[in-house]
Amino acid sequence: MTCVRMKIRNCFIFILLCSVLGCSSTKNLRDNEYMLMKNNIEVKDKKSNEFDDLQYLVRPTPNRKFLFTNLRTAIYVNWEPKVKRNGETKERWLKRKIGEPPVLLDTSQIDYSVGQLHLQLRKLGYFTPEIMPEIRHRKSNPKKVLVDYKINVKDQHYVREVNYTIPLPEFRRIILLDTASSLLKPGMAYNENRIIEERNRIASLIRDNGYYYVNNNVVVVEVDTINSSQILTNKGQKSLALNIVVDLDHVRNENLRNRMFYRYQFDKIYIHTNYSLTTEQNELLDTIRVVSYTKEKDSTTYYFITPADTLKDGRRKIIRDFRYRTIIDNIFTKKGAQYTQAAYNKSYYRLRGLNNFSIINIEFIENQNSIDSVGKTGKLDTRYRLTRSKKHSFALEGSARSDKMNLSFSYSNRNLFKGAEYFTVNLYTGFYYHNVFYNKNSDDENLFYFDVGANASLSFPRLLFFKNVQNSNAVKYSTQIRLGVNVNQKYKRTKVNFSTTYNWTPNNSVTHSFSPVNINTYDTSFRVSSINEYSADYRKRFDKAMDLNIAYRLNYLFPINSQRHNLRLTLDMVSSGLLFLGVDQLFKKDSYERIFGYRYTRYESLSFNLNYLYTINKKNAIASRLAMGAAIPLTNPEKTGNVLPFENGFAVGGANSIRGWGYRLLGPGGYSNDTAYMEKTGDIMLELNLEYRGTIWKALKYGVFADAGNIWLWNDDPEMPNAKFGFDTFYKQLALSVGVGLRLDFNFFLIRIDYGLPILDPGSPYGNVINSEWFKKREKYATPGGKNKSYLGFWRGFQIAIGHAF
Q1: Averaged pLDDT score across all residues of the chain
Q2: Residue 470, CB half-sphere, CA atoms under 13 Å: how many?
Q3: Which of 82, 351, 512, 611 is the most buried (most CB within 10 A)?
Q4: How many CB atoms are located within 10 Å of the residue 641 CB?
Q5: Sign of CA dihedral 433, 436, 438, 441
Q6: For 442-506, what is the HEC assignment?
């Protein structure tokens, strides 16, 4: 107790010291110098999130605070240089490494900021805003000032009409036939960023019709604001007209201007399959000419520039590091095809999807011998410089969360059979320790336990056995074959999995995964004490079983034309045992169904996750999730019990779910068993999450969240009252937890520490409110075996994990 008090006292003294030091940040300022504390942006006549980023345009940027104080500036001001005996001065380490000079008020920067605000508001259609900067001195310290930018944006302008001036017949037809795809529509609010996007779209549209040399500068958008106050929209808004001009007269380079009228086709292709900066100077290179005639009549000539080796007898041996067909199938700059930017993009993304190249460089070279000055046509040779990633790689990774630590070792081969096959072997172990926090009144002596496993996977960059159905316009195809085994010490349970999965991505918004073969076997060698507290029917979930299913997953990113909004849907469907069910019905079997000594499962499962992220500005966002699922057993519970394996059920609770409860500790329904620690899964699941994500300082961020949901059983279990799902009761059995957390966000890596507090607990014996025992630090109790144990209460709310919860 004394130690805790000392820690609290020291923390209080530290914060007090920071506050005191913060007050002295201005002591060395001259009479005409003031420390800038904050810039405030206030738009008085309109509220809109399009103004949220205005604050990032204002200069100078004030000093960042630490623990709500100007600690770094105080250190800089108060840690004077050290004077040596010889009279020399030396900056102190604390001042040099941690200190920061105070940012001073600069009136010239205020004028600059006003100009930047004018430019940004003009881009949004506010052409005559009033911006009034005001300097305020703090009463507690007049040397500290705040600058308020009070803005009246006035009326926003809207697009009245969009006109086209295209004197070039070569381009007029291309553009006018595609006006339906235009990003500029009458009635929309004026937005300069949207105008730039439309300008780039039109230039790309022209290039995609073979005009390789056309650049974005040939498209100009003229804005006509004359009579904007007199000609109003139907809603009484000020309007303007846009005129899109496509002309080459302003291109000064005459040779380039002439080339912009030429239409180009692809011709020969040169491919460096193992390119490096010294490749072209290496004499041990050979060029292999490959002509591929496929069902699409591809007559392209491919020149593979590959490494070679000199044998003892002087002959040269070609080192074929890739099968030619693997590369050819992922290249779309085919001979005779019209030049398009889309062919470049598709080739780049398909080659990147092979996971074999660290650098992909694609260059087009005009074939001077093919220029037709009369017909204004030409040909382009394509050169692919592909820099290989390491073929063999090893990785040692670790992760931790509030209930488990993981350590894994993996080996990868990126090109096993020279067809960009990705082979991976992974060995892992997990160390569970959550029994220490939750294991109350249980006779299970195993407070710590492990699970170990291994899996091997082999991925092919195509649809294995179904290559002919592949669409060349798709973004990516792959086939994965996986074999894995896992042994869980707590339940003495072994799981073996074999699956074949086909993945295809037709566009950047949709990904499909289909597993026609997915076999899981679960084998519990003998009964263990950890499941003795479950009901008789529920213990059947731990029986020896085989799950043979067909699975499908859909990932869909909604195409919302806004960087602030991100909406993603994940849908999972699993069908298990229908083939065996049909055989049973054919032969009229009515028994405890088994195959190879395993009872096979029969159920249908459907679940989805809907994730929505709203980015307020660079430092703040709101994230939410809705998850629902149901796995319905198809067996007769009176004869075979509930045969859904424990691992196949839905679970809630833990660092990535409802954070007021531990992993798999919530539910099902309103069922309560206060005599033992029990992991639980159910047949029906509902979960809702809401989280506000903000920034404290640089990589240090925070979250405020609320999580709600539960799981339920499909069939009634007499020994587990209130666990069955009911439409008239489920909403009364929703658990709710709220909490806060800290994050260390390094962009590529995020460490998260959350604390979740249960507010509504449907399984609490004290009513549907928080259990008062939660706040007790530690409680000792006696197990049925007579040994004294203890569990931690308050500390159960801490959740540690890598990455966001959703």
Answers
A1: 83
A2: 22
A3: 351
A4: 21
A5: positive
A6: CCCCCCCEEEEEEEEEEEECCCCCCHHHCCCCCCEEEEEEEEEEEEECCCCEEEEEEEEEEEEEE
Q: CB within 8 A of 631, min separation 6: which ones?
A: 574, 603, 604, 605, 607, 644, 648, 649, 650, 683, 684, 714
Residue 664 in contact with residue 710, Cβ under 8 Å? no
pLDDT attached to residue 439 = 54
Q: Which of 38-47, 72-81, 478-487, 666-675 has the lowest mean pLDDT?
A: 72-81
pLDDT at 311: 58
588-619 pLDDT, tens digit each: 555 556 667 777 788 899 999 999 999 988 88
Cα separation, 127 vs 448, whole angstroms: 67
DSSP lists the bridge partners of residue 83 as 89
Q: Residue 656: how many CB atoms within 10 A of its CB?
A: 19
Q: For residue range 72-90, what is the model confidence (pLDDT) as tens digits?
A: 787 777 776 665 555 565 5
Q: Among residues 282, 261, 253, 286, which one has the least CA distance to residue 271?
A: 286
Q: What is the pLDDT of residues 245-262, one digit of tens each?
A: 998 887 888 888 888 999
Helix, strand and coil percent figures for the chain, each rounded to 5: 20, 40, 40
What is the reported pLDDT for 633?
A: 86
Residue 69 and residue 224: Cα distance in Å, rounded?
50
**Could you tell me if 605 and 630 are in contact, meaning their C-beta atoms sit under 8 angstroms apart?**
yes
Among 589, 621, 607, 745, smallest CA distance to 683 is for: 607
| Closest residue by Cα to residue 164 from 78, 222, 79 | 222
- Tell the burial category of 454 from Cβ atoms under 10 Å away from its Cβ (0-12, 13-18, 19+): middle
Calpha distance 89→68 (Å, rounded): 32
pLDDT of residue 233: 79
Q: How many other β-carbons are positioned within 10 Å of the β-carbon of residue 425? A: 14
**First-to-last C-alpha distance (Å) of the chain:** 38
Nearest in space to 432 (alpha carbons), one of 196, 213, 679, 241: 679
Measured CA angle at 202 (ends 199, 204), to 5 deg: 110
